[in-house]
Design goal:
Layout lengths: L3 E4 L3 H13 L4 E4 L2 H10 L4 E5 L7 H11 L5 E5 L4 H9 L4 E4 L4 H21 L4 E4 L2 E4 L4 E4 L10 E2 L2 H12 L5 E2 H8 L5 H18 L6 E5 L3 E5 L1
Parallel strand pairs: 1-2, 1-3, 3-4, 4-5
Antiparallel strand pairs: 6-7, 7-8, 8-9, 10-12, 11-12
Length: 232
């Protein structure tokens, strides 16, 4: 069955939703703030996320943006005690699939989850998300190959990438022309943002820059105070 990540700081509501969804056959992990929610997301494999909007340490909108950097497709439902139109609009801008205002019916929440998962399953069945186009370069993630698109008269040998190079390039390609923070990349690819892993990532960034020079219009740049950005 699909696994759900619930991030809700209200202990009573959080426990109630978690127990209800688990009882209905949807294993649900629960976090009580945005930071803890991001840690669970990066360490797990979730089919749908439910985020409260107003939370300590990291609000639901910020959490959703960071989750989208690592997985653009995972469905997200926002929970909020507010009914202001501005909150609804902001939620959909950061990639919400649905929005529920507290208090809400557990049965309605379940029906919305089931509808979203059906739509998501149909879209993922037909989507091709394993080949990333980066300028004139094609990145074949499953086979860890970076190659340049050429005509029949030009020879170009694909570059075989290591696992870490592939994971890092995938993260950057998923966020093309958008900054990716150093800490987030380290946690997603290396598991934590320790000093030694940070030095290792700098080496891999240098290697990727060398490979990407095949297309001079592609740049992997440092963004001061943020991290890296893959620009086309």
């Amino acid at each position: 069955m699909p696994t759900i990540l619930l991030v809700e700081d209200d202990p009573n509501l959080g426990q109630l939703v978690q127990e209800y969804l688990t009882m209905k056959g949807y294993p649900t992990d629960r976090a009580i703030n945005g930071d803890q929610g991001l840690q669970l997301f990066m360490g797990g494999n979730y089919d749908l996320c439910i985020f409260d909007v107003m939370m300590p340490k990291k609000d639901g909108f910020t959490l959703a943006k960071e989750v989208r950097m690592g997985n653009r497709d995972v469905p997200i439902i926002f929970l909020t005690a507010k009914s202001m139109q501005e909150d609804t609009i902001q939620g959909f801008k950061v990639g919400a699939d649905d929005y529920m205002t507290k208090p809400f019916s557990m049965e309605e929440l379940l029906l919305r989850i089931q509808a979203i998962l059906r739509r998501y399953q149909r879209s993922t069945d037909s989507a091709e998300t394993t080949i990333y186009q980066i300028g004139s370069l094609s990145f074949d993630y499953p086979h860890q190959l970076l190659s340049r698109n050429t005509d029949a008269t030009t020879e170009s040998q694909p570059q075989k990438l290591t696992s870490k190079e592939s994971e890092l390039l995938k993260l950057l390609a998923q966020n093309l022309n958008q900054p990716v923070s150093r800490s987030f990349a380290l946690k997603m690819v290396w598991g934590d943002d320790s000093y030694f892993n940070a030095r290792s990532m700098d080496v891999y960034v240098t290697k990727l820059r060398k490979y990407l020079k095949e297309d001079p219009t592609v740049q992997l740049v440092n963004v001061h105070g943020e991290g890296f950005k893959l620009i086309v």
